[in-house]
Specification:
The protein is built from 15 helices and 18 strands. By secondary structure, it is an alpha/beta fold. It binds zinc ion.
């Protein structure tokens, strides 16, 4: 398993250096020019080596609905999504494989899967995703998506009196389920971590958040939630707590240096200060926010306030791909139109650091992952700089971020184990996966959601749309 990548380009301060990189027992052992070859020699000539990126927020099973949901805001989109959610373990398996493969081939070595659970088969859903990620060999942060309020509770009431169905599973049972998942599957040393992941304030009680905090403290788990993705959620927080969602989450002790929060579109300046003080991480999902009309997260403000930011694709029904390089490109460029001061715009090198070290920080693993540093684990991606989309030779990182790189990932290692070689995943049969995805689906262009019809009138009234 030991190897030495020879004559490879790496980023140096403001420039590049050509070096050899030795990997021994899964960790980076040395980085310098002309090193002695340890283990297998690997030709790094005309290739760029970067630390693996983090796909820091996604929902793998949404793959089955990608490209099909009409243009709707989150609250209605969710109703549509859940009307057609795949309730099939085999599909969970295939979409986890697909999510892993697309992440790997766009520069990611880690995936945070905010995993939608099949009711009544919750542990089986988790086991299946874990099995898929282990087979591929990607580092996975499996975050079972839990809630204890029914979907309609996520829409503000406005002036009206709203009654919501109770959620089908009691809060305590959900927490017990989570503890069992941790016992069975939380194996960070083997590349599989379980996170506590209450979906967000819109559908979770304080009791659920508090139970998650306890589990997180007891088992040293990271915490992951959606936060203030939409205007409606901002309104809902005021209705529910009489303060902002961030103020409330701080009060109950949910925010910490191992808490990552997807979206964060509608935050006040005070909220931003709180995220900085609590060392929470923001996961920027620019494509999803555009697709659902949620808004543009004030990422440059976060960065100036010292908040750690990284990128996610979000689920494939609100993106509708799992191309991490695309998320990084849009997530960097988007802010050039919101902020006049170009000196604060995100540079390509900053984007790369956000996607790698930023991801590692958000998962409390910055001491082990996220940069090419001797002693860190070898989660590495080798890009082929002779591919058309990275030519002619200009600035490799500039082209990787701002260009439209296709088929440029040549090799990937996770924990020193090679899982992509010559641009192909070596651990699973991707042709077979494609065939299975094809077999388990059909062309489907005109889905009508009953739930959207039921809640749309109320949603439009409360959001002031006549
Ligand atoms: Zn999400």
């Amino acid at each position: 398993m030991n190897f030495t990548i020879q004559n490879v380009l790496i980023a140096a301060v403001d420039d590049y250096a050509t070096v050899d990189v030795q990997v021994v027992d899964g960790a980076i052992a040395a980085i310098a020019p002309s090193l002695e070859v340890v283990g297998t020699p690997i030709n790094g000539k005309n290739k760029l080596l970067l630390p693996g990126f983090f796909n820091a927020h996604t929902h793998s099973s949404e793959m089955w609905q990608r490209g099909v949901i009409p243009p709707l805001p989150l609250e209605l989109w969710l109703a549509h999504l859940y009307d057609f959610a795949p309730l099939d373990i085999e599909k969970v398996y295939l979409s986890a494989l697909g999510t892993a493969v697309e992440t790997l081939l766009s520069g990611g070595t880690s995936v945070v899967d905010h995993l939608v659970l099949i009711p009544g088969q919750e542990l089986e859903t988790i086991a299946t995703a874990v099995r898929a990620y282990k087979e591929v060999g990607i580092r996975a942060f499996v975050s079972p998506l839990i809630q204890d309020e029914s979907l309609t509770a996520g829409i503000p009431s406005g002036e009206s009196e709203q009654n919501h169905e109770p959620y089908f599973r009691p809060t305590q049972a959900t927490l017990e389920l989570m503890e069992e998942a941790v016992r069975q599957f939380h194996r960070p040393d083997e590349g599989i971590s379980i996170l506590v992941a209450p979906t967000g304030i819109q559908l979770c009680s304080d009791a659920l958040f508090e139970g998650c905090i306890e589990l997180s403290n007891q088992y040293n788990l990271c915490r992951h939630s959606h936060l203030l993705e939409t205007k409606a959620q901002e309104k809902l927080a005021q209705e529910k707590y009489g303060c902002t969602a961030v103020e409330h989450l701080k009060r109950i002790g949910y925010l910490s240096d191992r808490t990552s929060l997807a979206h964060c579109v509608h935050l006040s300046d005070t909220d931003i200060t709180i995220l900085a003080e609590t060392k929470s991480t923001v996961v920027h999902n620019p494509l999803s926010n555009l697709r659902l009309g949620s808004g543009i997260a004030p990422i440059l403000k976060y960065r100036q306030a010292g908040v750690n930011v990284t990128f996610g694709c979000d689920g494939a029904s609100s993106n509708d791909s799992q191309d991490l390089l695309e998320a990084i490109k849009i997530g960097s460029l988007l802010h050039n139109v919101t902020d006049l001061d170009y000196q604060q715009w995100i540079t390509c090198r900053q984007a790369v650091e956000m996607a790698s070290l930023g991801g590692a920080k958000g998962l409390n693993m910055a001491d082990k992952l996220g940069s090419l540093t001797v002693g860190k684990e070898a989660d590495l991606v080798l890009y082929d700089l002779t591919k058309l989309s990275l030519l002619p030779r200009t600035d490799p990182i500039g082209l990787l971020v701002l260009g439209r790189p296709t088929n440029v990932v040549e090799s990937v290692w996770v924990n020193g184990k090679q899982i992509v070689a010559d641009g192909k995943v070596t651990t699973i049969d991707v042709d077979e996966l494609q065939q299975q995805l094809f077999n388990h689906s059909q062309w489907d262009t005109n889905r009508k959601s009953q739930s959207v019809r039921e809640i749309e009138t109320h949603y439009r009234a409360v959001m002031g749309l006549s």
